[in-house]
């Protein structure tokens, strides 16, 4: 059993590392965001919904008004597709989709590659 759980644990550690380095300063270490500035990732239906949408946001960024959990945000998320590898993007999205009470399926490198602008 330890052998089968080693790969997901390693992937989760890689995703946590990418998150802590690149995302936590805005979305916070606990994924709760900052009210009025940076939306929460914990319990966010965009994060736990269809993977293609969150992949697109991480790869290409997002600008303009959005509403998350009934609260408005009007900022800009930078595009990470030119900074992070497809493997890093898959790892960090998988980490976020399975952290802080989120329970969505992981994302693969193939999933990330398949999402075009």
Automatic annotation (TrEMBL):
Domain Cytochrome c: 10-100
SUPFAM superfamilies, A to Z: Cytochrome c (SSF46626)
Keywords: Electron transport, Heme, Iron, Metal-binding, Transport
Gene3D superfamilies assigned: Cytochrome c-like domain
InterPro entries given in the database record: Cyt_c-like_dom, Cyt_c-like_dom_sf, Cyt_C_IC, Cytochrome_c-type_DH
Molecular functions per Gene Ontology: electron transfer activity; heme binding; iron ion binding
Transcription keyword on record: no
PROSITE patterns referenced in this protein's UniProt entry, alphabetically: CYTC (PS51007)
Classification via Pfam families: Cytochrom_C
Protein name, entry field: Cytochrome c-552 (Cytochrome c552)
Provenance organism: mine drainage metagenome
């Amino acid at each position: 059993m330890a052998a089968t759980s080693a790969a997901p644990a390693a992937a989760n550690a890689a995703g946590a590392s990418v998150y802590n380095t690149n995302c936590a300063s805005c979305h916070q270490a606990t994924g709760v965001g900052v009210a009025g500035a940076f939306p929460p990732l914990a319990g966010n239906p965009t994060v736990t919904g269809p993977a293609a949408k969150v992949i697109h946001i991480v790869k290409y960024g997002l600008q303009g008004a959005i509403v998350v959990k009934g609260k408005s945000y009007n900022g800009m998320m930078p595009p990470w597709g030119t900074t992070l590898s497809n493997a890093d993007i898959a790892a960090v999205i998988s980490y976020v989709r399975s952290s802080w009470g989120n329970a969505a399926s992981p994302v693969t490198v193939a999933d990330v590659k398949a999402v075009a602008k």
